[in-house]
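I am writing to request your help with a piece of structural work I have in hand. I set the record out below, with my sincere thanks for your time.
___
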Amino acid sequence: MGALLILGGRSDIGGELARRLCAGRPVVLAARGEHGMDELTSELLRNGATSVHTLSFDAADVSSHREVIEQAATLAGKDITTAVVAFGILGDQEQAEHDEAHAFDIALVDYAAQVSMLTVLADVMKRGHIVAFSSIAGWRARRANYVYGSTKAGLDAFCQGLADRLQGSDLALITARPGFVIGSMTHGMKPAPLSVTPDVVAQAVVKAVESSSGSRPVSRTLWIPRTLQLLAWVMKLVPRPIWRHMPR
């Protein structure tokens, strides 16, 4: 079994996926700075990881992405066969409407850096699964969070194309489209309808990975929960004058 790489090692969903996928393999937790991952490291070792390594990387420094992946494989001592791209920021919509630098930061981390990292992973990895995270926020941009939503819309389109590119190869892309995720990133915010928790998202992703782990893995796009897909189609039908007043 190859190595597991979590890009966004302190993220709620990244941690939940690490717990579920670590058994019998080396794990690399990559995040901005190596602090704050000691507890998760110990837990992964108790859960059966053969080794756990931490790696510092700056998602916004796209020129370093290929080197980060090479360092991760070196630390693990094995090829990476499962890579989870779980870094990102929610940002402040109100600030982004007036502060072009903040709007750019959101776009850089949540779209451009994701495109860069996914491109490197698809180029370097020989087999296995890449996991990326889109969102219902990208399905139809809302006035309340259009900056963040626009990055997810672009990322989702990129992932659909990348999945088609990987079709028939030994590498598959799992694209998760969760609804509102109740966790540290959304702490203090009122949950939206069909909200999920990180463990629910992780379990759905693990199930997809395990179900497509045959001789030729299959790329999949997941609505989490599944009923969110029906809500998404309804969203498309809401008249724009009403839609612009919808909350986050």
In short: The mean pLDDT is 92. The chain has nine helices and seven strands. The first helix runs from residue 12 to 21.
